[in-house]
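Teaching note: in complex prediction, the entire set of molecules is handled at once rather than each chain in isolation. The prompt given to students was simply: 'Predict the structure of this complex.' The entities are:
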Amino acid sequence: DAKTTQPTSMDCAEGRAANLPCNHSTISGNEYVYWYRQIHSQGPQYIIHGLKNNETNEMASLIITEDRKSSTLILPHATLRDTAVYYCIVRVAGDSGGSNYKLTFGKGTLLTVNP
Amino acid sequence: NAGVMQNPRHLVRRRGQEARLRCSPMKGHSHVYWYRQLPEEGLKFMVYLQKENIIDESGMPKERFSAEFPKEGPSILRIQQVVRGDSAAYFCASSPILGADTEAFFGQGTRLTVV
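The expected output is the structure of the full assembly:
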């Protein structure tokens, strides 16, 4: 079961920042927040991940609240090619003695970037 | 995504035939995950393998489906006696080491159509 809550869909104007929220109120101290996206049935694409500090890479920024119960993915200058389903995932260690770090995908947010 | 190679990209099988899907992980990666995405649905975890070991197969259907990741060569997802309901996109992902702080990279998937 996914441990995150995301809006079903969002719109963003091309060139503007896209801010995608995610709630993960039951997150544990050693669990990471991951973001992936899937562009029209292609393979999921890794975007970014973090534990408690804010993170930035060439694709996006990840802002995690101090209590770690929510986070926001920021695409600073959205383009039409950023239209995709964005998945926020809390990565947990499984029951197999802590040796299973599978990613569990929820329904994600469909971000539509409009011209 | 380009690093994880899946083949074939498209596979058509008649009902009752066998389907073999191959996944070559990125160089140096010894962990492979398989996911299935039915039309208009989300990504569902199927199985997690390390070299020569199945770690978690909790998402695999009990019959007709099997997976392996031999010491040499690609990971194979095998579906025996395919039925129309097996039509889906099958994605694999790989990661280099074990841990919650290690991103997994996905391939472009194999689209199986059962006619």
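Point out the following to students. Chain B has no helices and eleven strands. Chain B has a mean pLDDT of 92.
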